[in-house]
């Protein structure tokens, strides 16, 4: 039995092609927006992409391109705050981040996959990947309870021994065993792993989904491990895209947005 902690690795973020943006903006007469970006914000592609999507909707690159637009916000933070406050959420769907979630339990992944729109998931297959041991996360309050830990550890070690015994019993390492047979038996064997077994997945989500899921899964009523994980995701996102995650207040681990349901 291996003691592990749930971890998050932010592995992908948006990247803009500024030459293509410039070519498009020349076409539509919006080059002054890019010049404004150059003066300060060009370094944050996520925020720039959200702003680009929003301005495209109203041709609000600069006053006059749309006769209905006589003035435009020139400050990006103020512009994006207005997107949030007016719940113009679709523009946030273009901005996607990918997270490798490592050593998270099947308890957690089962809850996470309930969030459907705006998310992409590739989960470690315990039909293909054989369990040699049972990595497991214990919260601090559990590790502080010696009798609980002794009993839990003994049970997990017994489960591990059963995994190893089954692998031998089914001859999974025998030469020439067809792969479909390994897969068949590996899938049977995973039934004897606990829900708490640590595994992993790649989770990609757009800003709209991230905002909603961070709020829902750090709520005091949410499950302890997923609260911990989404607190970490909230911290990462606030650093990555402050103008789109700076409106939250964090109270006892709960991320409460100023603008809900964008
Ligand atoms: C504290 C807590 C306890 C929970 N307990 C249980 C439980 O006991 N049993 C259980 O089965 N589940 C439970 N859930 C899961 C919960 O019911 C949702 O399925 C899950 O949180 C996904 O969130 P969501 O419904 O907001 O959907 P998401 O997939 O995150 O979608 C985001 C939003 O899009 C809209 N949307 C998405 N799909 C649809 C649709 N088909 N129709 C209309 N609008 C849609 C909704 O506005 C939704 O809020 C719990 C969740 C939490 C946070």
Rg to the nearest angstrom? Answer: 24 Å
Spatial strand order of the main sheet: 2-3-6-4
The total count of strands amounts to: 8
Q: Could you tell me the strand content as a percent range? A: 15-25%
Spans with pLDDT under 50 lasting ≥5 residues?
A: none
Query: Helix fraction?
Result: 40-55%
Number of helices: 11
The whole-number mean of residue pLDDT values reads 95
Main sheet record: 4 strands, antiparallel
What is the overall shape?
Answer: elongated
What features would you describe in this structure?
This protein is an alpha+beta fold and 262 residues long. It has a domain at 127-190. The chain has eleven helices and eight strands. It has helices at residues 18-28, 31-38, 45-58, 76-85, 106-112, 140-143, 146-169, 179-190, 207-218, 224-240, 242-245; strands at 2-3, 7-12, 96-105, 119-123, 135-136, 198-206, 249-251, 254-256. The protein has a four-stranded antiparallel sheet with strand order 2-3-6-4. It has a two-stranded parallel ribbon with strand order 1-5. Helix 3 (45-58) packs across helix 4 (76-85) and helix 9 packs antiparallel against helix 10 (224-240). The chain is elongated and about 75 Å long. The chain starts with a strand and ends in a 6-residue tail after the last strand. The model has no long low-confidence stretch (mean pLDDT 95). The chain binds flavin-adenine dinucleotide. Flavin-adenine dinucleotide binds at residues 114-117, 212, 216, 219, 221-222.
């Amino acid at each position: 039995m291996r003691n592990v902690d749930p971890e998050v690795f932010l592995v992908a973020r948006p990247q803009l092609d500024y030459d293509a943006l410039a070519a498009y903006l020349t076409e539509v007469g919006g080059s002054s927006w890019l010049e404004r970006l150059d003066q300060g914000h060009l370094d944050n592609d996520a925020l720039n992409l959200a702003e680009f999507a929003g301005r495209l909707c109203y041709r609000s690159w600069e006053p006059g391109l749309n006769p209905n637009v006589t003035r435009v916000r020139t400050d990006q933070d103020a512009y994006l705050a207005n997107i949030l406050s007016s719940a113009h959420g679709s523009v946030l769907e273009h901005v996607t981040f990918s997270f490798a979630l490592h050593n998270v339990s099947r308890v957690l992944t089962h809850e996470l996959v309930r969030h459907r729109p705006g998310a992409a998931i590739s989960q470690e297959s315990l039909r293909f990947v054989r369990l040699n041991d049972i990595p497991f996360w214990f919260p601090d309050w559990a590790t502080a309870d010696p009798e609980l830990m002794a009993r839990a550890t003994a049970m997990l070690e017994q489960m591990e021994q059963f995994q190893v015994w089954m692998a031998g019993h089914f001859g999974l390492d025998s030469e020439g065993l067809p792969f479909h047979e390994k897969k068949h038996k590996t899938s049977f064997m995973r039934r004897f792993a606990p829900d708490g077994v640590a595994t992993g997945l790649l989770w990609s989500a757009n800003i709209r989904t991230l905002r909603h899921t961070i709020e829902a899964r750090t709520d005091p009523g949410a499950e302890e491990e997923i609260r911990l994980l989404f607190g970490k995701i909230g911290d990462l996102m606030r650093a990555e895209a402050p103008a789109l995650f700076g409106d939250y207040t964090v109270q006892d681990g709960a991320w409460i947005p100023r603008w809900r349901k964008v």
